Automatic annotation (TrEMBL):
Family to which this protein belongs: Belongs to the zinc-containing alcohol dehydrogenase family. Quinone oxidoreductase subfamily.
E.C. number(s) listed in UniProt: 1.6.5.5
CDD domains: QOR2 (cd05286)
The reaction(s) this protein catalyses: 2 a quinone + NADPH + H(+) = 2 a 1,4-benzosemiquinone + NADP(+)
Gene3D superfamilies listed in its UniProt record: Medium-chain alcohol dehydrogenases, catalytic domain, NAD(P)-binding Rossmann-like Domain
Official protein name in the record: NADPH:quinone reductase
A cellular component annotation (GO) from this entry: cytosol
Keywords associated with the record: NADP, Oxidoreductase
InterPro entries: ADH-like_C, ADH-like_N, ER, GroES-like_sf, NAD(P)-bd_dom_sf, QOR-like, Quin_OxRdtase/zeta-crystal_CS
Database matches in Pfam families: ADH_N, ADH_zinc_N
UniProt KW Oxidoreductase keyword: yes
Amino acid sequence: MTQAICIHAFGGPETLQFESVDVPAPGPNEVRVRHTHIGVNYIDVYFRTGLYPPAAMPFTPGVEAAGEVVAVGDAVTGLQPGQRIAYAARPPGAYAEERIIPADRLVPLPDAIHNEQAAAMMLKGMTAHMLLAQIHAVQPGEPILIHAAAGGVGLIACQWAKQLGATVIGTVGSEEKAELAQAHGCDHPILYRREDITERVRHFTGGEGVAVVYDSVGADTLMTSMDCLAKRGLLVSFGQSSGKPPAIEVGQLAAGGSLFLTRPTLFDYIGTAADLQHSAEALFDVIERGAVTVQVGQRLPLANAAEAHRALEARETTGSTVLIA
């Protein structure tokens, strides 16, 4: 038996129950892993509330963790017991001391990257790579807008974009978060609770607007994001922490200046083992070079996962939240 967070019914953080569970031996092309650190992400909230339905109930949430291989099934190559690994992968199941996971979803960790770093950055860091290099290749001198700039993805994306030479504008909810974002590459933090986002963006860009907006907030920001774009700009809606984004009429894209809109999910960009390895290597490279650092703002025991969710939904967190298994 091992311990895990289980959800028996959709709902609030109180549905996250710490229970004893059985973990079977790995089957063909599967690996049994023991977690040391587990990443908390907003996608976990989406699964908890039923916005993203799991394959079956009850289930264990979580798509990001680091630890070591315990056992491997038949036909598994390149992995062995005792090897340090990390992942950001579906199906959910990371909120557990141990689990079974497909072997091709695991990435061996370099010696220079420790487990807490990996659990705090795999999903968020590969998301940043997707945003800045694959969906839109950010160019030197290009102005961009990142919402939730002091969050887990935001802090990594601000640093990475700055390293690429972009002019980084970011929205934050407090003076403390503004200072944190600025220390991590955000040139122009905007306090969205008391400043007009569109007006400030136009000010920072000489009236032109930004080339791309990265919006993980959704309902509260999507229309403002469109207003911040330059002609032929790109709106990347990749989350909805404030609720479902409003519908956009096709004609609004034309009226805004021949705009583009995309709603990506990371798992479509790391769907093959080769794509996953490419993204992970890009992330490891910027971390090992010191171009990007990972900020862990909150650490809690696995049993306290409900507390982590409450803080995340209340926008009380900065950087990454990690559960200790």
